[in-house]
Structures are given as C-alpha cells and as structure tokens.
Amino acid sequence: MQRILVLLLVSIFMFSCGSKKRVVAKKPTIERKTKISSIPESNGVKEEVETPVITKTYTNTTEEYIDTYKDIAKTEMELYGIPASITLAQGILESGSGRGRLSVEANNHFGIKCHDWTGKKIYHDDDRLQECFRKYNDAKYSFRDHSLFLTQRKRYASLFYLKTHDYKGWAKGLKSAGYATDRKYPQKLISLIERYNLHQYDKEVLNKSSVVENYLLADTTAKIKHIVVKGDTLYSISKKYNTSVEAIQQINGLEDNIISIGQTLVVK
After folding, report:
1. Which H/E stretch holds residue 5?
2. Could you tell me whether strands 121-124 and 131-134 are parallel, antiparallel, or unpaired per DSSP bridges?
3. How many beta carbons lie within 10 A of that of residue 114, not counting itself?
4. Which DSSP state fits 159?
5. Which of 17, 88, 96, 204 lies in the 20 to 30 Å Cα band around 26?
6. Cβ 242 vs Cβ 236: under 8 Å
7. For the chain, what percent of residues have pLDDT higher than 70?
C-alpha cells in the first residue's frame, strides 16, 4: 500500500513538471525612418545618401520674394545692364511681393501689357476695365521680358547711360521715361532698395564683372564695342569682327546665345 502511494506521488510530480512551458519575453521592435535620396551612378553603382531637409524661414513675404528671385535679377543685370536692385524693387512693387493676381495666375511680375504680344494672355482691371496682360509659363520669362521691354524701347535708352550702381538715378529715370504714372514711384523703389539692402546684389554682379574688366584694361588695344541691331546673332557678330562666339560670351559674361536689340557688346 505504501509502495503504491509513493509511485502515485512520483507520477503526479513528473506530470506537473512536463506540463510547464517556458515563457520568453519578446524585445520591442524600433522602426527608424530616414529620408533617402538617390545620387547619380558612379562606376555603375547607384548610391543612396541621407539628405537633411532644409527649411528657410522669413519674417515677411517680401524677404521670401527677394530670396526666390535675386539670382534671376542678377543674371538679367549681367546680360542687359539693368541694376538687379531696380529689377527686384520693381518686381516687389508691381507684383505685391509675388502675391498679386497677375503674378499668381500669369507669372507676370511687372504688369507688362499685351501690346504686340502673341503669347498667352490674361485680362485684368488696371487703368481701364479688363485690360490685356501677358501671361508666362514661368516667372523667369517675365524677368527676361522686363529686360527686353526696357532695352528695346527708345524712350528708356537714356537709362543705359547711367552707372549700373546708380539705383537712385534709375528709379527717377524710369518715372521720367513714363514707366509709371505714380508721382511717388521713384521714392517707393528707392525705399524698397534701401530697406532690404537690394543694392548689395548690384555690387555682387559688379565685383564679378571686375575680373573681366581688369582683363580688358590690361589689354594694349582699345575696346571695340558693337550695338546689337535687328538680325544680329553672336555668330554673325563674331564673323564681322574676326573673333569667336566663345570669346564674345567670355568677355561679356554671357551664359547663352541670347542677345537683344540695343544691347552693347564688347567684341575685342
């Protein structure tokens, strides 16, 4: 009897031990999200690198406008001799710092009307109801058209005898030439230029151009200039003066083959 009782106790003990399961705690999974961007292939291997997201903050819409378009204004100054400060100030004033209807819906930052325009159009109330204004696919074309508008019209020719750093003279000259009817137009431009230090961009362009200027001054020969007329191309001008397109581009700081009627080029 005692032997049976012992066997029974042993059986119960073994059964209870075999039924226990070992519990294993799982470690939490941490998911890391990283912005990955691709860079061009090198030696046939496509590389991916982490790029930080840079967010700029501005105190007002005008500062944002300046930061967005300052490089375009500087390029126009290099090509056409219009102070970048004047271009930016006019753009700010005419477009409401890029918030006006013409700039938002038509990329027209200077309120240039249709005249002989054959491209897209937009109608907007101005001096009269529903006047025709030019419409552009990109704002940069509005800046280029502004440069062409000033360089191709005789009434603005006197502006180009002014120094490119003389923003006050340019502001007053635009009013005298009939660009705007507002009597305070020059003061408004000058105020914007000085408030936002826009003339710094004129200096940047002039300092960049000084390298070319020093090269020309070092030359023993006098400068030979050519005023662009209708039908001229860089190629035809280069042949006329027995030089090359590349040489004209380098001397004048041109990045492409675009020239305009009335533009003065140093050819030798």
Report:
1. helix 2-18
2. antiparallel
3. 15
4. G
5. 17
6. no
7. 74
Written as six digits, the tokens of 193 are: 């230029």
Which of 84, 86, 92 has the alpha carbon at shortest distance from 63?
A: 92
**What would the pLDDT profile of 51-77 be if each residue is shown by its tens digit?**
566 678 999 999 999 999 999 999 999
Determine the residue type at 197: N
Closest CA to 158 of 144, 175, 143: 175
Picking from 132, 139, 104, 101, the residue whose alpha carbon sits closest to that of residue 118 is 132
User: What gap in Å lies between CA 261 and CA 264, rounded to an integer?
Assistant: 9
What are the tokens at 23? Answer: 């519990």
What's the length of the chain? 268
231-266 tens-digit pLDDT: 888 888 988 888 888 888 888 878 788 888 878 888
* pLDDT score, position 48: 62
- The beta-carbon contacts of 210-214 under 8 Å, at least 24 apart in sequence, are 212/250, 212/251, 212/252, 212/253
pTM summary value: 0.62
Q: Are 123 and 208 in contact (CB under 8 A)?
A: no
Of 140, 106, 142, the closest CA to residue 124 belongs to: 106
| Tokens (6 digits) for 106 | 């038509």
Q: Show the tokens assigned to 171.
A: 């502001």
Query: Amino acid identity, residue 84?
Result: A
Which tokens go with 158? 């006197």
